[in-house]
Amino acid sequence: MKTGFLAQPSEEQRQTMIKLAHEYGYCVAEIDFEKSWKNIPVADCKNHAGKFWEERHKDSVRKGSRIFFSSGGSTGQPKYTLLNFSEVEQNSAIHGKGYRACGVLPSDVVATWGTPGIMSSEFTVYLALSHTGACILPIGDTSDPKSIIEIIRNFNASVLLVMPSDLSPIIALIEASGERLDNVRLIITGGEPLYEADEQRFRSFFSPKIVFRSVFQTSDTGTIGYQCPCCERGEYHVHDSLQILEIDNQDEQGVGDLVTTNLGRKLVPIVRVKTGDRVFEIPEKCACGISSPRIRFLGRSGRICKVGGEKFDLNRLNEIKEALTLPVDDFQITLSREEGLDQFTLLSNRVVQDSSLQEQAKNIFDNISQKLSTQLSRGVIRPLKFLALDRTNVVLSPSGKFVSFRDTRGI
């Protein structure tokens, strides 16, 4: 396994990496300044921010011009990021550059989704959009698709900045009424993948010239990438003025874990931190002429995925089965995408005559439904369903082994 930079950092950047890591006690061992920055270990994003919160910044709320964010990150558990205003402004300006590259113009009206919750960083999207010169139309409450459609029409929104899961209820209502939103010319997604099947379905309800693009960022590490008109699905230009990216644990195809160093973060330093994403570098230069490095996003490297726009820990599925003391190969759980909504299906690999199978399925569904109650109540995922099938109907691994969970949404 190897680690490789997408673009070699300058000597000044390397020294800054060492200085930050040394100053904040970032490493288990002291860093020898005479040796390479390579002695800085790669940190796991699951415990990175928590360390600085507990050890250094728990009392910083009383120390002046600073902002706390809370995010689930890759763990699904709340953790905290601390920034000063200059850091927020820098990140927002660079993120705004990404929106401009996606195609947002000063003449646009941008409807942006997102409910600003407790300690949410959602307002930074507005700051980033301010750098495009566009008019901002905040969509906070997503529970009333009909009112949202009316707002989009009344204000002639031409751009939608939205997660696919928040767009699905809008599409469902438009589809039922036989209407369209022809004034919308650009849809920018983020926060979760836009699957090809969803994109093709969405296209039917907007302008024939509708364009889909995406941005890539996290609250923990800052804005990372954006799509230009030449980027294909899952491809991103890197904000190399802010991020120094590496690909760790690369396999023979160059696929590995994305590692970022954000030298714009000083209060909670981001030095060689894994984002939890699997990527590979695109070596060819982009036809758009932008010289920044490019990566292709292949999905999460951990067991956290987005279900109905919310984080869901897939390890919970195994915990449920273990708690119910079920045989490992009794059930196969699939996560699919049906008409724009996520769908959990429980498949049995055997058919039994007694009621025990149905009872076990009910227990699993009750547990999963409880953990997905928010998504179910919002109508952004479909009710779970159960199918009892012969083993020949259950998909096995290429080697013939039983697979307990399959995410088929990108297939």
List the SSEs and their pairings:
Elements: E1 2-5, H1 11-23, H2 48-57, E2 66-71, E3 79-84, H3 85-102, E4 109-113, H4 123-130, E5 135-139, H5 145-154, E6 159-161, H6 164-177, E7 186-189, H7 196-203, E8 211-218, E9 222-226, E10 235-238, E11 243-250, E12 256-262, E13 270-282, E14 294-300, E15 304-307, E16 310-313, H8 315-323, E17 331-338, E18 341-348, H9 356-371, H10 373-378, E19 385-388, E20 405-407
Parallel strand pairs: 4-5, 4-6, 6-7, 7-8, 17-20, 18-19
Antiparallel strand pairs: 1-11, 2-3, 8-9, 9-10, 10-14, 11-12, 12-13, 13-14, 15-16, 17-18
Task: Explain this structure.
With 411 residues, the protein is of the alpha/beta class. 27% of the residues lie in helices and 28% in strands. It contains ten helices and 20 strands. The chain has helices at residues 11-23, 48-57, 85-102, 123-130, 145-154, 164-177, 196-203, 315-323, 356-371, 373-378; strands at 2-5, 66-71, 79-84, 109-113, 135-139, 159-161, 186-189, 211-218, 222-226, 235-238, 243-250, 256-262, 270-282, 294-300, 304-307, 310-313, 331-338, 341-348, 385-388, 405-407. The chain has a twelve-stranded mixed beta sheet with strand order 1-11-12-13-14-10-9-8-7-6-4-5. A four-stranded mixed beta sheet has the order 19-18-17-20, with helices on one face. The chain is globular, with a radius of gyration of 23 Å. It starts with a strand and ends with a strand. The model has no long low-confidence stretch (mean pLDDT 81).
